[in-house]
Design brief:
191 residues, six-stranded mixed beta sheet, 8 strands, 23% helix
Length: 191
């Protein structure tokens, strides 16, 4: 496979494939990936979530490097879902409701380019639906300008294992949170 113009594989499209036929990928950046992942884990029709890094220019980044602000990666959640059970528009609704899309490079106390708002699409239908949803959200927010980027999904680098399903496993405080489908318990983010 040919790589991008500057011959940097980190900038290539994500060519991974879902684990089973009929499933699709979706990818979102909405701040710290721990709480975002738990939100998507709870959605009926989502069969798998992974947290990682994408959209940057460094191959095989790790958490420390991404947090240094030198790689341009985003903390993302890659969602594997069954579109027959969970339309992509459901994922977009969760995305818009989960974070503030008007704050550049920041979500709450988390500051840096790795926390920027983004929808990273895998096909043209996702691109169109993402743009339509952004336009609808902009009408709702009126004068507050949305800064969410909508771009093709680039190579996905899976984050370190301790980040995967972090809040479900108990996070830094050892207090497990439910990833049960349909769960509406508040999500508590802690390191």
């Amino acid at each position: 496979m040919a790589t991008s113009a500057d011959n940097n594989p980190a900038l290539d499209p994500d060519t991974d494939t879902p684990s089973k036929p009929g499933l699709e990928f979706a990818e979102f950046g909405a701040g710290c990936f721990w709480g975002v992942e738990l939100s998507f884990q709870r959605v009926p029709g989502v069969v798998k979530t992974e947290v990682g890094y994408s959209q940057g220019h460094v191959q095989d980044p790790n958490y420390k490097l991404v947090c240094s602000g030198t790689t341009n990666h985003v903390e993302v959640v890659r969602v594997q879902f069954d579109p027959e059970l969970c339309p992509y528009t459901n994922l977009l609704s969760l995305f818009w409701g989960r974070h503030d899309p008007t704050t550049p490079n920041r979500q709450g106390g988390d500051v840096g380019a790795q926390y920027r708002s983004g929808i990273y699409y895998y096909n043209e239908t996702q691109a169109r639906l993402a743009q339509e949803s952004k336009e609808a959200k902009q009408l709702e927010l009126k004068d507050k300008k949305i800064v969410t980027e909508i771009l093709p999904a680039k190579r996905f680098y899976r984050a370190e294992e301790y980040h995967q399903q972090y809040l479900e496993k108990g996070g830094g405080k050892g207090e497990k949170q439910s990833a049960e489908k349909g769960c509406n318990d508040p999500i508590r983010c802690y390191g």
